[in-house]
Amino acid sequence: MGAPGGLFIGTQSHPRTLDLADREVVLTLDDGPLPGPTGRVLDALKLHGARATFFLIGRNAAAHPALVRRMAAEGHTLAHHTMTHPWTLRQRSFEIGTREIEDGIRAVQEAAGLAQAGVATPFFRYPGFANTSALDGWLAERNFAVFGSDLWASDWTPMSPERQLSLLMSRLKRRGRGIILLHDVVGQTAQMFPAFLAALCAGGYRVVDLKPGLLAPPLAAAPGNWRSYSERMIAGRR
């Protein structure tokens, strides 16, 4: 998967997403690694022979390099989510934003034992999807794929693993495919994960593994009445 000139995907934030077939999903997990929950998620993925893309916070990667190296050794994709996860880069200067991204990339690559010549995986997700046009342009110049998502588990909200699984599968059933956002540092998600992977298998879903490459992937446009999640939330408050 390449991103010449930049790539912005995931219909919660952008008007395009990956052109997945029906019942194809991409598993993405944010904010790790964290001993305990991340390990349980990795155990479940290994049991089911599935691979995910982990958007890692640099300081967490630096603190727990063994988990980063386990992810890489088991075939998962290491992606980037800034150094310290500032909740909104829109309130920071451009210089702070670029430093957050660069420091995060450096920390992940060092934790994984990768050389620093170039970015091993030019995949990035903004904390809170809080992009800016200046940072978008900076990332595009560096041929990054910037990920939103198509659906999520709402796992920032406390709920039982059973309730979370029901909510996520109902959303997936309605959509049929897409980039799924979860958080491997959340205990209820780690508890849910084995049942979630089993439900995907039982429902005939296929987990698509994303890797960096030279060619841009096929893309699908969002529906004609598309609005980002942020726009929908603002409209709902009026």
Please explain how this structure is put together.
- This protein is α/β, with parallel strands linked by helices and 238 residues long.
- It has a single domain, classed as Glycoside hydrolase/deacetylase (TIM Barrel), CATH 3.20.20.370.
- The protein has eight helices and eleven strands.
- The strands form three sheets. Strands 3, 4, 5, 8, 9 and 10 form a six-stranded parallel β-sheet that branches. It has a three-stranded parallel β-sheet with strand order 1-7-6, with helices on one face.
- α1 packs parallel to α7 and α6 packs across α7.
> Based on CA inertia axes, which overall geometry fits?
globular
On the 0-100 scale, what is the average pLDDT? 93
Helix run count? 8
CATH architecture identity = Alpha-Beta Barrel
Number of domains: 1
CATH first level: Alpha Beta
Q: Which helices and strands, and how do they pair?
A:
Layout: E1 7-9, E2 16-18, E3 24-30, H1 37-48, E4 53-56, H2 58-63, H3 65-73, E5 77-80, H4 94-112, E6 123-124, H5 133-141, E7 145-147, E8 151-152, H6 161-175, E9 178-183, H7 187-202, E10 206-207, E11 219-221, H8 229-237
Parallel strand pairs: 1-7, 3-4, 3-9, 3-10, 4-5, 6-7, 8-9
Antiparallel strand pairs: 2-11
Helix pairs in contact: 1-7, 3-4, 6-7
